[in-house]
Amino acid sequence: MHKLVNKVSLxxxxxxxxxxxxxxxxxxADKTLKDELPALPIxxxxxxxxxxxxIKSDYVEQVDDKKLITEAINGMLVGLDPHSAYLDSEEYKxxxxxxQGEFGGLGIQVTMEDGLVKVIxxxxxxxxxxxxxxxxxxIIKLDDTAVKGMTLNxxxxxxxxxxxxxxxxxxxxxGEIEPLVFTLVRAVIKIESVQSKLVEPGYGYLRITxxxxxxxxxxxxxxxxxxxxxxxPMKGLVLDLRNDPGGLLNSAVAVSAAFLPxxxxxxxxxGRTMDAKMRLLANPEYYLRGPGxxxxxxxxxxxxxxxxxxxxxxxxxxxxxxxxxxxxxxKRSVVMGTQTFGKGSVQTILPLGNNTAIKLTTARYYTxxxxxxxAKGITPDIVDESEESSRQLRESDLSRHLRGKKGESSDDTNxxxxxxxxxxxDSKTKSKKSTDTAKKKKTPAEFGSNDDALLTKxxxxxxxxxxxxxxxxxxxxxxxxNWEKSYSFRAD
Length: 492
Fold this sequence. Notes:
Elements: H1 2-27, H2 42-58, H3 65-78, E1 85-87, H4 89-98, E2 102-105, E3 108-113, E4 116-122, H5 127-131, E5 138-142, E6 145-146, H6 152-159, E7 166-172, E8 180-185, E9 187-190, E10 194-200, E11 203-208, H7 215-229, E12 236-240, H8 249-259, E13 265-271, E14 278-281, H9 284-287, E15 308-312, H10 319-329, E16 334-337, E17 345-353, E18 356-366, E19 382-383, H11 416-438, H12 453-465, H13 470-491
Parallel strand pairs: 11-12, 12-15, 15-16, 16-19
Antiparallel strand pairs: 1-18, 2-9, 3-4, 4-5, 5-6, 5-7, 7-8, 10-11, 13-14, 13-18, 17-18
Helix pairs in contact: 1-2, 7-8, 8-10, 12-13
């Protein structure tokens, strides 16, 4: 048996070494001849092949070679950061369906943390949202199966399924002593990525729930309708990106381009390869997918200049942060709300053949002024944490999260300003804890509704922005916050 293991190990070592040499030569093909070929990690490769051989010969049950190799690939990617992953044929297909705006499931954006699934944000008007699933919830069981030990893709597979079938999920929530159990009925998740309404004549509201293939085009239609429906010239716009987990990069560029001057820098990326170094401008070249008419042509000219407020919170991630950062850096919009999630890394889908692919982190996003979004997020111009009773899950809370900038340690991204903000949020949470636990928890107001306090503050800001000093406006907003707090105590 020992000889068999050694033979298998040697064969595998030879195969893997050959592949590694081939990959190394490919990687340096465009470098100068004076560059030396990186040394192969022979001892680590030997250990890998020995483990493989031992599993094949000694494991209690026979294991298929394909399964072992697939799990090894999974391990390589999962160990890098929370967002890199291997996609089998089914997962690859689901990813493509998801970006088109329709799939079967529960309607939650999730990530993996310490072997468990954490909710980034529920998607509006889905089974999870209606049931009361919240950002930061920790999913510990799916039906009767513990989540611990599953990969993120395996957990997502279990949550997705045929419409009208049910699943029971068990959740651990901060502030709750006992786990919460929810029985949800799966549905076809049709995400309406752009919502809009005229709050009152002259003041429009635009909400983006996720950045999909048609988001830019749908936003253009919504803007055009708002301007036509308003019986007076538009005086202010509110762009709501709260709990928007992100999506397609080109759609984020399109949304930014709708409000920015032509050819303004929206975002740039930095990575190791030339393909990972991009500068994306407010130009059709960077947001149209293939040939076609520029759907942003013909928008009202005032959309580029009308006063604007962008709403964000801890559930605003990735593409949402790109838009908020671009509008903020170009001083096109005031950003209001809480610190965003901090997911500022680029994942590239690299097909492998046989309808499989890898989702690999290849670059970091930077705002036009050179600020890294990764593990830090966007800091609002006007911070308002009245909607968040506790500090939300953020990228910097995830194990193995990518550093904010090359050269920082993972701990560095939790230091400085970000750490102070997190500590301040925690302090506020602790000071309110005794009061909050004594009171019945209120269901948060629906975004964009008449009860949406942050939207009310944004409209107040816009109404006072003409001819009023920022200090006066902030004073009025603080008075409004204090009034709401006293009102909430009386209401309870």
